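Deliverable D2.4 — example input (structure tokens):
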């Protein structure tokens, strides 16, 4: 563990590599789609002023311990660069796109079991190193902790903004398989009224949803609504 994360090399011959691992990811289902994910690091200072370092990210492929890792015990990594960012100025934030990496962490099981990522500088020793803040920095209460941000949305049910494979099941209804996530939805038509206030009533079942709210395990009605008491929510400008 270290308070700062130097990344790069210096003329004296020293080379610095940083390793990061994250936990505390939210629980997502197969119906949740990650739109984008980014790693943000705060650059504290540098060995040389006004030099640019291209900081590359590679995914780690083996276990390691932040309290004991050394050059000789460093973990294995993928050869391909996952993302990069050119870093020149200090005392500011920088971002790396790690969308594919985070998606794969969720696909392979629990994202909290990820091996993490490696950060290296692409340039030679004459560009020096850049130092970033780690989660062990003494003044972390003032901000600066490494952080992953990602955006996701739930694709459950049928929405006009998605496309689907559609298959008729005759009197049993119609099934839909979403192109984006492969989510399966079964729609069974119950009744259509032709009165002055016509209603189309369907049962809708999505795979992986087993909660019973009164219409059968995993079933919803196409006219179901949810009421939220806004008086119990906090609002911020």
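Example output (designed residues):
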């Amino acid at each position: 563990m270290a308070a700062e994360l130097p990344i790069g090399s210096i003329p004296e011959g020293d080379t610095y590599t940083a390793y990061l691992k994250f936990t505390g990811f939210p629980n997502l289902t197969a119906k949740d789609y990650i739109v984008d994910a980014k790693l943000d690091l705060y650059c504290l200072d540098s060995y040389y002023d006004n030099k640019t370092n291209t900081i590359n990210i590679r995914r780690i492929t083996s276990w390691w311990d932040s309290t004991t890792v050394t050059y000789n015990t460093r973990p294995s990594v993928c050869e391909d660069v996952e993302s990069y960012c050119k870093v020149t100025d200090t005392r500011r934030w920088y971002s790396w796109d790690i969308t594919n990496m985070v998606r794969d962490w969720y696909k392979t099981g629990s994202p909290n079991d990820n091996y993490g990522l490696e950060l290296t500088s692409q340039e030679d020793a004459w560009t020096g190193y850049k130092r970033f803040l780690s989660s062990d920095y003494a003044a972390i209460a003032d901000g600066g902790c490494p952080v992953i941000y990602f955006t996701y949305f739930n694709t459950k049910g049928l929405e006009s903004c998605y496309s689907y494979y559609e298959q008729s099941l005759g009197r049993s209804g119609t099934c839909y398989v979403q192109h984006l996530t492969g989510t399966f939805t079964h729609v069974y038509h119950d009744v259509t009224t032709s009165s002055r206030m016509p209603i189309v009533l369907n049962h809708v079942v999505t795979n992986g949803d087993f909660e019973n709210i009164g219409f059968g395990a995993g079933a919803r009605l196409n006219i179901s609504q949810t009421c939220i008491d806004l008086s119990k929510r906090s609002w911020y400008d």
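Residues 99-107 form the longest helix (9 residues).
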